[in-house]
Amino acid sequence: MTLNRITNRALVLSHIPKEASQWAKIHLDDGGDIISSVYGDNRHKDNQRVATFCQFEQLVDAVAHDRTVEPVPNRKTFFGELERIFVMHLHRNPVINQRKSEIFILLDIRLCDTY
To answer: pLDDT tens digit string along 31-88?
Structure first.
């Protein structure tokens, strides 16, 4: 089931846009940094900081190994390098209870080994 209370996965997937635009940079809200993707960073001088590395949190299922029980989400911190930024526009669609147009930002992050 989705946030919009639609249980038919095939129906929802059929309404997802088939294209996404790729961006080189993104500005984080609330006074955050401007981070660049690896493939969009055009700074080549040695004395410039490259802001492609990031720290992020993600919910991870603590009992993912056991599919017979309900998921137990735990917040976990990860570090990685932002490789690509994709932006998708999902338009208002009453068929899947999408009540307003929204923009989704998808980040392709290569995890860093932090051991």
So the answer is: 777 778 887 766 556 656 667 888 889 999 999 999 899 989 999 999 999 999 998 8
- For residue 95, give Cα distances in angstroms to 4, 13, 103, 104: 11, 12, 18, 19
Rounded CA separation 4/2 (Å): 5
Q: How many Cα atoms sit within 13 Å of 34 on the Cβ side?
A: 6
- Give the C-alpha distances (Å, rounded to integers) separating 65 from 57, 75, 87, 91: 21, 17, 32, 36
Distances, alpha carbon 57 to alpha carbons 16, 43, 53, 71, 103, in Å: 25, 28, 14, 17, 20
Q: Show the tokens assigned to 45.
A: 């001088």
Tokens at 1, concatenated: 């089931």
List, in order, residues 6 or more apart from 57 with CB less than 8 Å away.
Answer: 75, 76, 77, 78
Where would I find the H helices in 1-115? 9-14
pTM: 0.69
